[in-house]
Amino acid sequence: MNLRYFPLYMLKFLIITIIIEIIFAFILGLRKKELLNVVLVNILTNPLVVSITVYVNITYGLYYRKITLIILEVLTIIIEAFIYKKYIKNKNSIRLAILLNLASFFVGELINYL
Amino acid sequence: MKKIYLLLLSILLIIPMSVKADMSAPYIEPYEATVSNPDGAIYYNMAYSDKQYLYKEDKLAYGKKIKIDYEEKINNDYYGSYFDENKNRNYYIKLSDIIRINKKYTYDESDYKKAKDGIVLYPNGIVMKSGPSAAFDDVAVVPGNTKLELKQTKDIEYNDSGWYLTTYKGKTGFVCELEGAIGYELAEENNGALFTSTDLDIKNEEGDTIEVIPANTLIEKNNKKYDLDAWSRSYYIEYNGVKGYISYLDLASENLGKLNVLYDNIKLYEKGVDTSKVLVKSLPKNEELDAYYSSCDWGSCIYYVKYKDNYGWILKTYIDDETETVEFKESGDVKPLIKKEENKKEEKEDSNEEEVIEVNTLTNREIVIYSVGGAIILALTMIVIIMLVNKKKNSKVNNNYIKDESNHIEEDLKESSVIEDQDDDNNDNTEEDDGTM
Protein backbone atom coordinates (compact mmCIF):
# COMPACT_ATOMS: atom_id res chain seq x y z
CA MET A 1 0.00 0.00 0.00
CA ASN A 2 1.30 3.40 -0.94
CA LEU A 3 0.71 5.70 1.99
CA ARG A 4 0.65 8.69 -0.32
CA TYR A 5 -2.88 7.65 -1.25
CA PHE A 6 -3.91 6.63 2.22
CA PRO A 7 -7.09 8.77 2.37
CA LEU A 8 -8.30 7.05 -0.81
CA TYR A 9 -7.62 3.67 0.73
CA MET A 10 -9.63 4.69 3.79
CA LEU A 11 -12.56 5.66 1.58
CA LYS A 12 -12.37 2.37 -0.29
CA PHE A 13 -12.33 0.34 2.94
CA LEU A 14 -15.26 2.33 4.30
CA ILE A 15 -17.41 1.80 1.21
CA ILE A 16 -16.75 -1.92 1.10
CA THR A 17 -17.39 -2.31 4.83
CA ILE A 18 -20.69 -0.51 4.49
CA ILE A 19 -21.75 -2.70 1.57
CA ILE A 20 -20.93 -5.90 3.43
CA GLU A 21 -22.60 -4.81 6.66
CA ILE A 22 -25.75 -3.62 4.88
CA ILE A 23 -26.08 -6.98 3.16
CA PHE A 24 -25.75 -8.86 6.41
CA ALA A 25 -27.99 -6.44 8.29
CA PHE A 26 -30.67 -6.91 5.66
CA ILE A 27 -30.41 -10.67 5.96
CA LEU A 28 -30.75 -10.33 9.72
CA GLY A 29 -34.07 -8.59 9.24
CA LEU A 30 -33.27 -4.92 9.65
CA ARG A 31 -35.60 -2.49 7.87
CA LYS A 32 -34.61 0.32 5.54
CA LYS A 33 -34.55 3.03 8.20
CA GLU A 34 -32.52 0.83 10.50
CA LEU A 35 -30.05 0.19 7.70
CA LEU A 36 -29.40 3.93 7.60
CA ASN A 37 -28.22 3.74 11.19
CA VAL A 38 -25.91 0.88 10.25
CA VAL A 39 -24.38 3.09 7.51
CA LEU A 40 -23.97 6.10 9.80
CA VAL A 41 -22.41 4.04 12.57
CA ASN A 42 -19.84 2.61 10.19
CA ILE A 43 -18.91 6.06 8.93
CA LEU A 44 -18.36 6.94 12.58
CA THR A 45 -16.16 3.99 13.50
CA ASN A 46 -14.41 2.59 10.41
CA PRO A 47 -12.16 5.55 9.44
CA LEU A 48 -11.02 5.86 13.06
CA VAL A 49 -10.11 2.19 13.33
CA VAL A 50 -8.28 2.16 10.00
CA SER A 51 -6.31 5.38 10.48
CA ILE A 52 -5.31 4.77 14.10
CA THR A 53 -4.22 1.21 13.34
CA VAL A 54 -2.03 2.30 10.43
CA TYR A 55 -0.53 5.10 12.51
CA VAL A 56 0.39 2.62 15.23
CA ASN A 57 1.78 0.26 12.55
CA ILE A 58 4.14 2.86 11.11
CA THR A 59 5.11 4.30 14.50
CA TYR A 60 5.46 1.24 16.69
CA GLY A 61 5.45 -1.75 14.36
CA LEU A 62 3.26 -4.68 13.42
CA TYR A 63 3.09 -6.24 16.87
CA TYR A 64 1.49 -3.14 18.42
CA ARG A 65 -0.73 -2.82 15.39
CA LYS A 66 -2.38 -6.15 16.23
CA ILE A 67 -2.96 -5.17 19.85
CA THR A 68 -4.41 -1.83 18.82
CA LEU A 69 -6.69 -3.50 16.30
CA ILE A 70 -8.15 -5.84 18.92
CA ILE A 71 -8.78 -2.99 21.34
CA LEU A 72 -10.35 -0.81 18.68
CA GLU A 73 -12.57 -3.59 17.35
CA VAL A 74 -13.90 -4.26 20.87
CA LEU A 75 -14.57 -0.56 21.37
CA THR A 76 -16.29 -0.42 18.00
CA ILE A 77 -18.61 -3.26 18.98
CA ILE A 78 -19.46 -1.53 22.26
CA ILE A 79 -20.20 1.79 20.56
CA GLU A 80 -22.26 0.18 17.81
CA ALA A 81 -24.20 -1.92 20.31
CA PHE A 82 -25.01 1.20 22.30
CA ILE A 83 -26.29 3.00 19.21
CA TYR A 84 -28.27 0.01 17.97
CA LYS A 85 -29.89 -0.43 21.36
CA LYS A 86 -30.89 3.21 21.48
CA TYR A 87 -32.16 3.62 17.94
CA ILE A 88 -32.93 0.22 16.50
CA LYS A 89 -35.80 -1.94 17.75
CA ASN A 90 -33.69 -5.00 18.30
CA LYS A 91 -33.78 -7.15 21.35
CA ASN A 92 -30.12 -8.04 21.33
CA SER A 93 -28.07 -5.11 20.08
CA ILE A 94 -24.77 -6.60 21.27
CA ARG A 95 -25.31 -9.70 19.18
CA LEU A 96 -26.17 -7.56 16.19
CA ALA A 97 -23.02 -5.44 16.56
CA ILE A 98 -20.82 -8.52 17.01
CA LEU A 99 -22.32 -10.33 14.02
CA LEU A 100 -22.02 -7.37 11.66
CA ASN A 101 -18.44 -6.56 12.68
CA LEU A 102 -17.37 -10.18 12.48
CA ALA A 103 -18.92 -10.45 9.05
CA SER A 104 -17.04 -7.46 7.65
CA PHE A 105 -13.82 -8.47 9.41
CA PHE A 106 -13.73 -12.07 8.20
CA VAL A 107 -14.99 -11.35 4.72
CA GLY A 108 -12.32 -8.70 4.40
CA GLU A 109 -9.58 -10.99 5.66
CA LEU A 110 -10.76 -13.75 3.29
CA ILE A 111 -10.82 -11.43 0.30
CA ASN A 112 -7.42 -10.04 1.21
CA TYR A 113 -6.03 -13.56 1.54
CA LEU A 114 -7.37 -14.45 -1.89
CA MET B 1 -31.18 -21.69 11.53
CA LYS B 2 -32.43 -20.38 8.23
CA LYS B 3 -30.63 -17.08 8.85
CA ILE B 4 -27.34 -18.86 9.50
CA TYR B 5 -27.60 -20.66 6.17
CA LEU B 6 -28.34 -17.35 4.50
CA LEU B 7 -25.28 -15.81 6.15
CA LEU B 8 -23.01 -18.61 4.97
CA LEU B 9 -24.45 -18.38 1.48
CA SER B 10 -23.83 -14.66 1.39
CA ILE B 11 -20.18 -15.17 2.34
CA LEU B 12 -19.73 -17.56 -0.57
CA LEU B 13 -21.45 -15.19 -2.99
CA ILE B 14 -19.33 -12.20 -2.04
CA ILE B 15 -16.01 -13.98 -2.75
CA PRO B 16 -16.30 -13.67 -6.58
CA MET B 17 -16.54 -9.88 -6.25
CA SER B 18 -12.74 -9.88 -6.56
CA VAL B 19 -12.43 -6.81 -4.49
CA LYS B 20 -9.16 -6.55 -2.66
CA ALA B 21 -9.47 -4.92 0.73
CA ASP B 22 -8.63 -5.34 4.33
CA MET B 23 -11.78 -4.52 6.25
CA SER B 24 -10.08 -4.72 9.59
CA ALA B 25 -7.28 -2.37 8.73
CA PRO B 26 -4.59 -2.30 6.10
CA TYR B 27 -1.07 -3.23 7.07
CA ILE B 28 2.35 -2.82 5.52
CA GLU B 29 4.13 -6.12 5.29
CA PRO B 30 7.43 -5.89 7.17
CA TYR B 31 10.54 -7.79 6.19
CA GLU B 32 13.83 -8.89 7.69
CA ALA B 33 16.97 -7.12 6.53
CA THR B 34 20.63 -6.93 7.39
CA VAL B 35 23.14 -4.09 7.19
CA SER B 36 25.11 -4.61 4.02
CA ASN B 37 27.33 -1.52 4.15
CA PRO B 38 30.77 -2.63 5.36
CA ASP B 39 31.21 0.74 7.09
CA GLY B 40 27.96 0.30 8.92
CA ALA B 41 24.64 2.05 8.39
CA ILE B 42 23.68 5.39 9.88
CA TYR B 43 20.24 5.47 11.39
CA TYR B 44 18.23 8.63 11.82
CA ASN B 45 15.70 10.02 14.18
CA MET B 46 12.78 12.07 12.86
CA ALA B 47 12.30 15.34 14.66
CA TYR B 48 9.49 17.84 14.32
CA SER B 49 9.98 21.55 14.91
CA ASP B 50 9.04 24.21 12.38
CA LYS B 51 9.89 21.61 9.77
CA GLN B 52 10.71 17.93 9.84
CA TYR B 53 14.30 16.85 10.11
CA LEU B 54 16.14 13.57 10.06
CA TYR B 55 18.87 13.69 12.68
CA LYS B 56 21.75 11.30 12.67
CA GLU B 57 21.42 9.16 15.77
CA ASP B 58 24.10 6.51 15.53
CA LYS B 59 25.41 3.67 13.38
CA LEU B 60 24.39 0.06 13.06
CA ALA B 61 27.23 -2.40 12.57
CA TYR B 62 27.73 -4.38 9.40
CA GLY B 63 25.62 -7.55 9.48
CA LYS B 64 23.20 -6.28 12.11
CA LYS B 65 19.71 -7.68 11.57
CA ILE B 66 16.68 -5.46 11.71
CA LYS B 67 13.02 -5.64 10.78
CA ILE B 68 11.82 -3.00 8.36
CA ASP B 69 8.18 -2.08 9.04
CA TYR B 70 7.69 0.10 6.01
CA GLU B 71 9.55 2.19 3.46
CA GLU B 72 9.35 5.92 3.03
CA LYS B 73 10.75 8.26 0.43
CA ILE B 74 12.33 11.35 1.95
CA ASN B 75 13.94 13.96 -0.29
CA ASN B 76 14.38 11.55 -3.19
CA ASP B 77 16.03 8.91 -1.04
CA TYR B 78 14.48 5.71 0.19
CA TYR B 79 14.49 4.97 3.89
CA GLY B 80 13.21 2.03 5.84
CA SER B 81 11.58 2.46 9.21
CA TYR B 82 12.39 -0.06 11.93
CA PHE B 83 11.52 -0.33 15.59
CA ASP B 84 14.35 -0.44 18.13
CA GLU B 85 13.10 -2.48 21.07
CA ASN B 86 15.89 -1.33 23.37
CA LYS B 87 15.19 2.35 22.80
CA ASN B 88 11.48 1.74 22.26
CA ARG B 89 11.12 3.94 19.20
CA ASN B 90 11.25 3.96 15.41
CA TYR B 91 14.30 4.97 13.42
CA TYR B 92 15.03 5.52 9.75
CA ILE B 93 17.79 3.85 7.80
CA LYS B 94 18.78 4.17 4.15
CA LEU B 95 17.70 1.20 2.11
CA SER B 96 20.95 1.38 0.19
CA ASP B 97 22.75 0.42 3.40
CA ILE B 98 20.76 -2.75 4.01
CA ILE B 99 19.82 -5.87 2.14
CA ARG B 100 16.71 -7.93 2.46
CA ILE B 101 17.08 -11.40 3.90
CA ASN B 102 15.65 -14.38 2.06
CA LYS B 103 13.71 -12.29 -0.28
CA LYS B 104 12.27 -13.09 -3.60
CA TYR B 105 10.01 -10.69 -5.39
CA THR B 106 7.39 -12.45 -7.46
CA TYR B 107 5.64 -10.72 -10.30
CA ASP B 108 3.99 -11.44 -13.60
CA GLU B 109 5.45 -9.54 -16.55
CA SER B 110 2.10 -9.57 -18.29
CA ASP B 111 0.82 -7.25 -15.55
CA TYR B 112 3.23 -4.57 -16.71
CA LYS B 113 2.83 -2.06 -19.52
CA LYS B 114 5.27 0.35 -21.11
CA ALA B 115 5.45 3.68 -19.27
CA LYS B 116 8.23 5.58 -21.05
CA ASP B 117 11.70 5.44 -22.58
CA GLY B 118 14.62 6.68 -20.57
CA ILE B 119 18.37 6.91 -20.64
CA VAL B 120 20.80 6.10 -17.84
CA LEU B 121 22.52 9.33 -16.81
CA TYR B 122 24.99 8.12 -14.19
CA PRO B 123 28.38 7.73 -15.90
CA ASN B 124 29.14 4.63 -13.83
CA GLY B 125 25.73 3.14 -14.52
CA ILE B 126 22.91 2.06 -12.25
CA VAL B 127 22.15 -1.22 -10.51
CA MET B 128 19.25 -3.36 -11.65
CA LYS B 129 17.52 -5.10 -8.74
CA SER B 130 15.42 -8.25 -8.51
CA GLY B 131 12.58 -6.32 -6.89
CA PRO B 132 11.34 -2.72 -6.63
CA SER B 133 13.50 -1.77 -3.68
CA ALA B 134 17.14 -1.07 -2.93
CA ALA B 135 16.97 -3.89 -0.42
CA PHE B 136 16.64 -6.58 -3.11
CA ASP B 137 19.47 -8.49 -4.76
CA ASP B 138 21.51 -7.09 -7.63
CA VAL B 139 20.73 -8.51 -11.05
CA ALA B 140 23.03 -6.47 -13.29
CA VAL B 141 24.73 -3.11 -13.71
CA VAL B 142 23.29 -1.03 -16.53
CA PRO B 143 26.00 1.23 -17.95
CA GLY B 144 25.63 4.99 -18.41
CA ASN B 145 24.02 6.23 -21.64
CA THR B 146 22.01 3.02 -22.00
CA LYS B 147 18.53 3.48 -23.37
CA LEU B 148 15.86 1.55 -21.50
CA GLU B 149 12.20 0.80 -22.00
CA LEU B 150 10.55 1.33 -18.61
CA LYS B 151 7.42 -0.54 -17.57
CA GLN B 152 5.00 -0.11 -14.71
CA THR B 153 2.04 -2.13 -13.48
CA LYS B 154 -1.12 -1.74 -15.54
CA ASP B 155 -3.37 -0.90 -12.62
CA ILE B 156 -1.66 2.40 -11.81
CA GLU B 157 -1.64 5.59 -13.83
CA TYR B 158 1.20 7.30 -12.06
CA ASN B 159 4.24 5.58 -10.63
CA ASP B 160 5.47 7.59 -7.72
CA SER B 161 7.76 4.92 -6.25
CA GLY B 162 10.35 5.61 -8.95
CA TRP B 163 10.90 1.88 -9.66
CA TYR B 164 10.31 0.45 -13.12
CA LEU B 165 10.60 -2.96 -14.68
CA THR B 166 13.07 -3.13 -17.55
CA THR B 167 15.24 -5.50 -19.54
CA TYR B 168 18.93 -5.16 -20.27
CA LYS B 169 20.92 -7.73 -22.26
CA GLY B 170 18.38 -10.46 -21.63
CA LYS B 171 18.10 -9.78 -17.91
CA THR B 172 14.89 -8.46 -16.43
CA GLY B 173 14.74 -6.50 -13.23
CA PHE B 174 13.89 -3.20 -11.61
CA VAL B 175 15.66 0.13 -11.87
CA CYS B 176 15.03 3.32 -9.97
CA GLU B 177 14.75 6.69 -11.72
CA LEU B 178 15.18 8.74 -8.55
CA GLU B 179 18.06 11.12 -7.82
CA GLY B 180 18.58 11.75 -11.52
CA ALA B 181 19.61 8.19 -12.32
CA ILE B 182 17.42 8.07 -15.41
CA GLY B 183 16.54 10.97 -17.69
CA TYR B 184 13.93 11.55 -20.36
CA GLU B 185 14.33 13.53 -23.54
CA LEU B 186 12.10 16.56 -23.50
CA ALA B 187 9.28 16.71 -25.97
CA GLU B 188 9.74 19.26 -28.76
CA GLU B 189 7.21 21.71 -27.30
CA ASN B 190 9.01 21.68 -23.94
CA ASN B 191 12.54 21.82 -25.29
CA GLY B 192 12.89 25.54 -25.75
CA ALA B 193 15.68 27.94 -24.81
CA LEU B 194 16.15 28.64 -21.12
CA PHE B 195 17.49 31.64 -19.27
CA THR B 196 19.11 31.56 -15.86
CA SER B 197 17.68 33.98 -13.29
CA THR B 198 20.57 33.52 -10.91
CA ASP B 199 24.02 31.93 -10.78
CA LEU B 200 23.15 28.30 -11.38
CA ASP B 201 25.16 25.32 -10.13
CA ILE B 202 25.66 22.34 -12.36
CA LYS B 203 26.00 19.36 -10.05
CA ASN B 204 27.10 15.79 -10.54
CA GLU B 205 25.16 12.73 -9.33
CA GLU B 206 26.73 13.06 -5.91
CA GLY B 207 25.49 16.60 -5.49
CA ASP B 208 28.87 18.29 -5.89
CA THR B 209 29.02 21.50 -7.91
CA ILE B 210 31.16 21.03 -10.99
CA GLU B 211 30.36 24.24 -12.85
CA VAL B 212 28.44 27.48 -12.35
CA ILE B 213 26.33 29.07 -15.07
CA PRO B 214 26.25 32.82 -14.47
CA ALA B 215 22.97 34.63 -14.01
CA ASN B 216 21.20 35.84 -17.15
CA THR B 217 22.83 33.23 -19.35
CA LEU B 218 21.00 31.74 -22.27
CA ILE B 219 20.94 27.95 -22.48
CA GLU B 220 20.29 27.45 -26.16
CA LYS B 221 17.59 25.20 -27.46
CA ASN B 222 20.11 22.83 -28.97
CA ASN B 223 21.81 22.24 -25.62
CA LYS B 224 20.85 18.73 -24.72
CA LYS B 225 18.38 18.64 -21.85
CA TYR B 226 16.72 15.74 -20.05
CA ASP B 227 13.78 15.74 -17.74
CA LEU B 228 14.00 13.71 -14.54
CA ASP B 229 11.58 12.14 -12.07
CA ALA B 230 8.68 14.22 -10.81
CA TRP B 231 10.27 14.82 -7.41
CA SER B 232 13.62 16.21 -8.48
CA ARG B 233 12.59 19.62 -9.93
CA SER B 234 15.78 19.50 -11.98
CA TYR B 235 17.06 18.96 -15.47
CA TYR B 236 20.12 17.14 -16.69
CA ILE B 237 21.91 19.24 -19.25
CA GLU B 238 25.01 19.39 -21.38
CA TYR B 239 26.37 22.94 -21.31
CA ASN B 240 29.72 23.99 -22.77
CA GLY B 241 30.97 20.43 -22.55
CA VAL B 242 29.88 20.00 -18.95
CA LYS B 243 27.20 17.46 -18.08
CA GLY B 244 25.21 17.63 -14.89
CA TYR B 245 22.05 18.57 -13.03
CA ILE B 246 20.52 22.01 -12.63
CA SER B 247 17.50 23.18 -10.73
CA TYR B 248 14.75 24.32 -13.05
CA LEU B 249 13.27 26.60 -10.41
CA ASP B 250 15.86 29.19 -11.34
CA LEU B 251 15.25 28.91 -15.06
CA ALA B 252 13.03 31.06 -17.21
CA SER B 253 11.64 30.08 -20.56
CA GLU B 254 11.27 32.25 -23.61
CA ASN B 255 8.11 34.33 -23.58
CA LEU B 256 8.25 37.45 -25.69
CA GLY B 257 5.78 40.18 -25.08
CA LYS B 258 5.14 43.53 -23.47
CA LEU B 259 4.88 43.92 -19.73
CA ASN B 260 2.87 46.76 -18.26
CA VAL B 261 3.89 48.15 -14.86
CA LEU B 262 0.65 48.94 -13.01
CA TYR B 263 1.96 50.36 -9.73
CA ASP B 264 4.76 52.52 -8.37
CA ASN B 265 7.83 51.20 -6.54
CA ILE B 266 8.25 48.10 -8.71
CA LYS B 267 11.97 47.28 -8.62
CA LEU B 268 14.26 45.93 -11.31
CA TYR B 269 16.69 43.33 -10.00
CA GLU B 270 19.97 42.17 -11.45
CA LYS B 271 19.52 38.50 -10.59
CA GLY B 272 16.10 36.97 -10.35
CA VAL B 273 14.58 38.13 -7.06
CA ASP B 274 17.85 38.61 -5.26
CA THR B 275 16.74 41.73 -3.39
CA SER B 276 20.31 42.72 -2.53
CA LYS B 277 21.06 43.60 -6.16
CA VAL B 278 18.71 46.32 -7.36
CA LEU B 279 19.30 47.95 -10.71
CA VAL B 280 16.33 50.34 -10.66
CA LYS B 281 14.61 51.25 -7.40
CA SER B 282 11.28 52.23 -8.85
CA LEU B 283 10.02 51.65 -12.36
CA PRO B 284 7.61 54.28 -13.66
CA LYS B 285 3.95 53.43 -13.41
CA ASN B 286 2.29 52.48 -16.71
CA GLU B 287 5.70 51.84 -18.30
CA GLU B 288 5.62 49.16 -21.00
CA LEU B 289 8.68 46.93 -20.95
CA ASP B 290 10.02 44.42 -23.44
CA ALA B 291 9.83 41.03 -21.69
CA TYR B 292 12.02 38.17 -22.85
CA TYR B 293 11.82 35.36 -20.34
CA SER B 294 9.54 34.38 -17.52
CA SER B 295 9.62 31.90 -14.69
CA CYS B 296 6.57 31.09 -12.62
CA ASP B 297 6.21 28.97 -9.52
CA TRP B 298 2.95 28.64 -7.60
CA GLY B 299 1.50 31.77 -9.15
CA SER B 300 4.56 33.89 -8.43
CA CYS B 301 6.33 34.99 -11.61
CA ILE B 302 9.53 36.79 -12.49
CA TYR B 303 10.17 38.39 -15.87
CA TYR B 304 13.40 39.29 -17.60
CA VAL B 305 12.83 42.71 -19.13
CA LYS B 306 14.57 45.68 -20.67
CA TYR B 307 14.16 49.13 -19.20
CA LYS B 308 16.10 51.86 -21.00
CA ASP B 309 19.63 50.42 -21.11
CA ASN B 310 19.10 48.03 -18.24
CA TYR B 311 18.28 44.36 -18.45
CA GLY B 312 16.97 42.77 -15.32
CA TRP B 313 14.17 40.98 -13.50
CA ILE B 314 10.90 42.16 -12.06
CA LEU B 315 8.62 40.26 -9.77
CA LYS B 316 4.91 40.01 -10.21
CA THR B 317 3.26 40.40 -6.83
CA TYR B 318 -0.34 40.74 -5.68
CA ILE B 319 -2.09 43.47 -3.78
CA ASP B 320 -4.90 42.20 -1.59
CA ASP B 321 -4.28 38.70 -3.00
CA GLU B 322 -6.09 39.64 -6.18
CA THR B 323 -4.64 42.64 -7.98
CA GLU B 324 -1.43 42.05 -9.92
CA THR B 325 1.34 44.65 -9.83
CA VAL B 326 2.41 43.97 -13.41
CA GLU B 327 0.39 42.76 -16.34
CA PHE B 328 1.80 40.64 -19.09
CA LYS B 329 0.55 41.46 -22.56
CA GLU B 330 1.25 39.19 -25.44
CA SER B 331 2.15 41.30 -28.39
CA GLY B 332 4.88 41.64 -30.98
CA ASP B 333 7.46 44.33 -31.65
CA VAL B 334 9.79 43.41 -28.83
CA LYS B 335 13.37 44.54 -29.33
CA PRO B 336 15.87 41.71 -29.55
CA LEU B 337 17.63 40.64 -26.40
CA ILE B 338 21.25 41.74 -26.02
CA LYS B 339 23.30 39.39 -23.92
CA LYS B 340 24.86 40.90 -20.83
CA GLU B 341 28.53 40.34 -20.03
CA GLU B 342 29.14 37.27 -18.02
CA ASN B 343 29.42 37.85 -14.30
CA LYS B 344 32.48 36.71 -12.49
CA LYS B 345 32.19 33.28 -10.99
CA GLU B 346 31.82 33.28 -7.27
CA GLU B 347 33.82 30.79 -5.30
CA LYS B 348 31.73 28.31 -3.49
CA GLU B 349 32.90 26.91 -0.16
CA ASP B 350 32.90 23.20 0.15
CA SER B 351 30.18 22.12 2.46
CA ASN B 352 30.75 19.40 5.04
CA GLU B 353 28.72 16.23 4.94
CA GLU B 354 25.37 17.15 6.40
CA GLU B 355 24.15 15.21 9.32
CA VAL B 356 20.82 17.01 9.21
CA ILE B 357 18.58 16.32 6.25
CA GLU B 358 15.68 18.70 5.75
CA VAL B 359 12.45 17.12 4.69
CA ASN B 360 10.70 19.38 2.19
CA THR B 361 7.63 17.45 1.14
CA LEU B 362 4.66 16.08 3.04
CA THR B 363 5.79 12.76 4.41
CA ASN B 364 3.75 9.58 4.60
CA ARG B 365 3.62 9.88 8.36
CA GLU B 366 2.10 13.36 8.10
CA ILE B 367 -0.51 12.07 5.69
CA VAL B 368 -1.50 9.35 8.18
CA ILE B 369 -1.58 11.81 11.09
CA TYR B 370 -3.81 14.19 9.16
CA SER B 371 -6.03 11.23 8.25
CA VAL B 372 -6.42 10.35 11.94
CA GLY B 373 -7.40 13.93 12.64
CA GLY B 374 -9.90 13.87 9.81
CA ALA B 375 -11.38 10.60 11.08
CA ILE B 376 -11.86 12.10 14.56
CA ILE B 377 -13.66 15.13 13.14
CA LEU B 378 -15.80 12.85 10.97
CA ALA B 379 -16.70 10.69 13.96
CA LEU B 380 -17.82 13.69 16.01
CA THR B 381 -19.90 14.93 13.09
CA MET B 382 -21.51 11.52 12.67
CA ILE B 383 -22.53 11.43 16.33
CA VAL B 384 -24.47 14.64 15.81
CA ILE B 385 -25.99 13.39 12.55
CA ILE B 386 -27.10 10.11 14.12
CA MET B 387 -28.79 11.98 16.94
CA LEU B 388 -30.53 14.36 14.55
CA VAL B 389 -31.66 11.64 12.15
CA ASN B 390 -33.11 9.51 14.89
CA LYS B 391 -34.70 12.48 16.62
CA LYS B 392 -36.63 13.22 13.44
CA LYS B 393 -37.57 9.60 13.09
CA ASN B 394 -38.71 9.44 16.73
CA SER B 395 -40.83 12.58 16.43
CA LYS B 396 -42.37 11.18 13.24
CA VAL B 397 -43.10 7.91 15.02
CA ASN B 398 -44.57 9.79 18.00
CA ASN B 399 -46.76 11.92 15.74
CA ASN B 400 -48.01 8.82 13.93
CA TYR B 401 -48.62 7.13 17.28
CA ILE B 402 -50.60 10.12 18.56
CA LYS B 403 -52.66 10.19 15.35
CA ASP B 404 -53.39 6.50 15.65
CA GLU B 405 -54.35 6.93 19.27
CA SER B 406 -56.73 9.80 18.52
CA ASN B 407 -58.30 7.79 15.70
CA HIS B 408 -58.79 4.89 18.09
CA ILE B 409 -60.34 7.22 20.64
CA GLU B 410 -62.76 8.62 18.05
CA GLU B 411 -63.74 5.16 16.98
CA ASP B 412 -64.28 4.16 20.59
CA LEU B 413 -66.46 7.19 21.14
CA LYS B 414 -68.51 6.41 18.07
CA GLU B 415 -68.92 2.82 19.14
CA SER B 416 -69.93 3.85 22.63
CA SER B 417 -72.45 6.37 21.27
CA VAL B 418 -73.90 3.72 18.99
CA ILE B 419 -74.16 1.33 21.91
CA GLU B 420 -75.84 4.02 24.01
CA ASP B 421 -78.36 4.64 21.26
CA GLN B 422 -79.05 0.95 21.02
CA ASP B 423 -79.47 0.77 24.79
CA ASP B 424 -81.88 3.71 24.68
CA ASP B 425 -83.87 1.99 21.95
CA ASN B 426 -83.95 -1.21 23.93
CA ASN B 427 -85.13 0.63 27.02
CA ASP B 428 -87.89 2.34 25.06
CA ASN B 429 -89.07 -0.99 23.63
CA THR B 430 -89.07 -2.55 27.09
CA GLU B 431 -91.16 0.31 28.48
CA GLU B 432 -93.65 -0.02 25.66
CA ASP B 433 -93.92 -3.74 26.28
CA ASP B 434 -94.51 -3.06 29.95
CA GLY B 435 -97.21 -0.55 28.94
CA THR B 436 -99.06 -2.99 26.82
CA MET B 437 -98.90 -5.67 29.42
List keywords for this structure.
heterodimer, A: 114 residues, mainly alpha, 4 helices, 0% strand, globular, B: 437 residues, alpha+beta, SH3 type barrels, eight-stranded antiparallel beta sheet, seven-stranded antiparallel beta sheet, 2 helices, 20% helix, disordered C terminus
How do you describe this structure in short?
The complex is a heterodimer of chains A (114) and B (437). Chain A is an all-alpha fold.
Please tell me about this protein's structure:
The complex is a heterodimer of chains A (114) and B (437). With 114 residues, chain A is mostly helical. In chain A, 86% of the residues lie in helices and 0% in strands. Chain A has helices at residues 6-27, 32-60, 62-87, 93-113. The radius of gyration of chain A is 14 Å and the shape is globular. The model of chain A has no long low-confidence stretch (mean pLDDT 83). By secondary structure, chain B is of the alpha+beta class. Among the domains of chain B are: 26-100, Roll (SH3 type barrels), CATH 2.30.30; 109-184, SH3 type barrels; 202-339, no CATH class. Helix content of chain B is 20%, strand content 41%. Chain B is built from two helices and 31 strands. In chain B, the strands form eight sheets. In chain B, strands 7-1-4-5-6-2-3-31 form an eight-stranded antiparallel sheet, with no helix packed on it. In chain B, strands 15, 18, 22, 25, 26, 27 and 30 form a seven-stranded antiparallel sheet that branches. Chain B is extended, with a radius of gyration of 37 Å. The chains are: A mainly alpha (114), B alpha+beta (437). At the A-B interface, α1, α2, α3 and α4 of A face α1, β4 and α2 of B.
The percent range for helix content of chain B is: 10-25%
Q: What low-confidence regions of chain A span 5 or more consecutive residues with pLDDT below 50?
A: none
SSE pattern of chain A: HHHH
Structural class of chain A: mainly alpha
Main sheet record of chain A: none
Task: Determine the N-to-C terminus distance of chain A.
Answer: 16 Å
The class by helix and strand makeup of chain B works out as alpha+beta
Oligomer: heterodimer
The shape of chain A, in one word, is: globular
Largest interface: A-B, 58 and 47 residues
The fraction of residues assigned to DSSP E strands of chain A is: under 5%
Largest sheet of chain B: 8 strands, antiparallel
- The counted number of beta strands of chain A is 0
